[in-house]
Amino acid sequence: MPSVFSGLEESSVDPIINLMIACKKDDHPNKIDVSVGVYQSESGDPHYVFPCVRAAKEHLMEKDPGHCYTLMTGIADYLSSAQKTIFGANPSNVASVQAVAGSGSLHLAFSLLKSIGYKDFYIGTPSWSNYRGMIEHVGCNYIEYPYYNYETRSVDIEAVKKALNEAPSKSVFVLQAVCHNPTGCDLSHDQWSLIFDIIQQRGLFLVFDIAYQGLSSGDVNKDAWAIREAYSRKMEFIACQSYSKNLGLYSERAGCTHVCTWDLANQNTVTSKLVAISRNEVSFAPAFGARIAALVQTDPRLQQMWAEDVLRVGSRLQDVRKQALDWFVKLQTPGDWSHILELAGLFWFSGITQLQSEKLIEEYHIYALSNGRVNVAGLNNSNVEYFCRSVDAIVRKFPSN
Amino acid sequence: MLRRSTRPFSVATRLAKWNEIPLAPPDKILGISEAFQKDTNSKKINLGVGAYRDNSGKPIVFPSVKKAETVLLEKETDKEYTGIIGSKKYQDSVRNFIFNNSGKDASGAQLIKEGRIVTAQTISGTGSLRVIADFLKRFNSAQNIIVPKPTWANHVAVFTDAGLSADFYAYYDKENNDLDFANLKKSISDAADESVILLHACCHNPTGMDLTPEQWEEVLAIIEQKKLFPLVDMAYQGFASGSPYKDIGLIRRLNELVQEGKIPTYALCQSFAKNMGLYGERTGSISIIAESGSQAKAIESQLKKLIRPMYSNPPIHGSRIVETIFSDENLLSEWLADLDSVVGRLNVVRDKLYQKLDKTNYNWDHLLKQRGMFIYTGLSAEQVIELREKYSVYATEDGRFSISGVNEHNVDYLADAINQVIKK
Ligand SMILES: Cc1ncc(COP(=O)(O)O)c(C=O)c1O
Ligand SMILES: Cc1ncc(COP(=O)(O)O)c(C=O)c1O
């Protein structure tokens, strides 16, 4: 019998998913997972629960707020504390709406911009693989420019400037505020300033994606520098915030869209538009994760715990980077590995080739992305040596060039 | 071409076209809640929001849900990402719960066995409606949907926002406060072949008036004949009879028709917002019944492709509660009992209110036919406004009362107020 869906074809899966499945199946004792972008504790546990989150959950259990519908803008305490974490204050000219984690907040931002006529979205490559789908999903154009220079292993600032200078005015630039995924390579303060100048002069629009706040410096305030700087320059922009990584709330889906506008009269209309978009898609963002995030950011004891948690995570990542570099130096691994220490956060764009990464899986049970992205959180005191020795062996056996 | 900004710097920084955004109309129900909150009358009653309140007017956490949360807090450590369409465990439990309920749905069980039912976790009922709307927009030949008049306030917006065109079919006779079955059948028969048709599985929102099994038979015959695509919205499973396994007649019948090859496919949007009281946790599902196992796989992959760019993956707090309850027989029977007592209370206040209403000049019999969270009073907008202004009784202007706002302590006051208002 003919069906309305008869012509439907199966769509392909995200390649990272296949890698995750293969990694899960592999039960070799030396297995190392440096693929998926989630934090792992020193003992290699990806299910690491931040102690402050644990405490917040216990608190919620005792003082149960129930599960009632929340507000369509979001839970009030959550919104105000999310603003503080991003801006360091509650600016009166920022309209904030709770969203389904970072992804949902980007989707809201893109939908809002689309509704006021923005069409061209610029993404520096390589980048997070979901941007293209998200931009095309709202019916806008996804345009790439090079962000990273593979030769110098640093931001290709000339290419970034060129893209900014050549894009039609009213283009949108989506920039990661900190811990660039996948390169780990962030803009310096000077580079940000340069970029802000061009954006302001040329009438471009800026969307910040901040999904790893705190994991670079170990301090959420420091990691918000670019956004606060843009604010102090009186720029209009949107910041898309996620608590997936910096509170380990991944699947609870806590996020927020912050729209900064300098015409106060617009604030209500912006909020109402964001709410209208949400209402036709999800009605409300989920409560539980937001309740945890709100508690952690408002209860003085939990606030303190969170600051310590984030600092501990940041230091551990930095320490493991240092250990890795020490091993590469000691082993005299061919190539220049010093960049591992110049970066911060979860990601290290290692320069490992696709072939090398396949061989790492096959011969050593080490799972990195095929583009060479290594999540350094997968490394720890007990496996960093094995990891470096394996990379060393593979690089010698299958030289890059 | 040389592009040069000629605007002064300060203007250039404000070029975003925020000014062009029109103020979107506020949500009516929330507006009512706000007005209610500001009202200082100690006798005030809120009949606007469709969420359960207990006999003292307080929201509740289902005891079974609280137990499941305790279990989770003790055991759970895993916060890592779940799949784009939720965990396998959630999909399986929900699919079994709905399509193979208590082993009484042989056709549903067979469909599950054949791998023909795709179930995906969604952001509650709204999210599932949106996902299916986007899906139909992309893959369905017909690009229009017909919905009952009246229907849930958000339905039309969700579908049209996704790019489908929406039209109404007749449902309710406001004059007689009853189902308008003759016109219902007529307007469905008049719809374009292959249209999508939205059906409320039970506890029709806002009228509370459902079709009888015999009436469903007639409607399903038209659906079959006109090759309409049934899209079932089930937001109140359990609120009609007190048992989710009884409120599922339409789904069972559809499964039979699918097995008999009379209706090739259909879809179901489902929510645990009301029947587990998980409102704010946003826990629901979309199920699509495909023609074959391989088609089901293709549909599943397309659902993932659609959801990923919207929000990546769904929230797990609510879905873990659902998984926990469905995987523990004691908890499951506790939940069924919790739900039964919630619905029992609603029926008690419904009866009490009916008894106290003045029937000399006004026929209130429709109250007894209506099921679920709402009574559709038939009061006019003016009467509703008068109730609000004179008696601090807050309801939407279509005359829909959320009866969970009524309890032993305020039912007399409410009945008196209504009696005063209709007297005139
Ligand atoms: C750059 C970037 N932006 C946004 C996100 C969104 O994550 P989520 O939706 O889980 O908050 C991620 C997650 O991996 C990311 O890497
Ligand atoms: C008929 C109907 N469908 C769907 C929903 C969606 O509810 P939720 O998104 O909270 O699950 C509701 C909620 O009131 C409803 O009444």
UniProtKB/TrEMBL annotation, chain A:
One of its GO terms (molecular function) is L-aspartate:2-oxoglutarate aminotransferase activity. Keywords: Aminotransferase, Pyridoxal phosphate, Transferase. The keyword Cytoplasm does not apply. The keyword Aminoacyl-tRNA synthetase does not apply. Its cofactor is pyridoxal 5'-phosphate. InterPro entries: Aminotransferase_I/II_large, Asp_trans, PyrdxlP-dep_Trfase, PyrdxlP-dep_Trfase_major, PyrdxlP-dep_Trfase_small. Residues 30-390 form the Aminotransferase class I/classII large domain. GO terms for biological process: aspartate biosynthetic process. GO terms for cellular component: cytosol. Homodimer. Belongs to the class-I pyridoxal-phosphate-dependent aminotransferase family. This is Aminotransferase class I/classII large domain-containing protein. The lineage of its organism: Eukaryota, Fungi, Dikarya, Ascomycota, Saccharomycotina.
From TrEMBL, chain B:
Pfam families: Aminotran_1_2 (PF00155). GO terms for molecular function: L-aspartate:2-oxoglutarate aminotransferase activity; pyridoxal phosphate binding. Residues 43-418 form the Aminotransferase class I/classII large domain. Its cofactor is pyridoxal 5'-phosphate. Keywords: Aminotransferase, Pyridoxal phosphate, Transferase. GO terms for cellular component: mitochondrion. Gene3D superfamilies: Aspartate Aminotransferase, domain 1, Type I PLP-dependent aspartate aminotransferase-like (Major domain). One of its GO terms (biological process) is L-aspartate catabolic process. Belongs to the class-I pyridoxal-phosphate-dependent aminotransferase family. Homodimer. PANTHER family: ASPARTATE AMINOTRANSFERASE (PTHR11879), ASPARTATE AMINOTRANSFERASE, MITOCHONDRIAL (PTHR11879:SF22). This is Aminotransferase class I/classII large domain-containing protein. It comes from Australozyma saopauloensis.
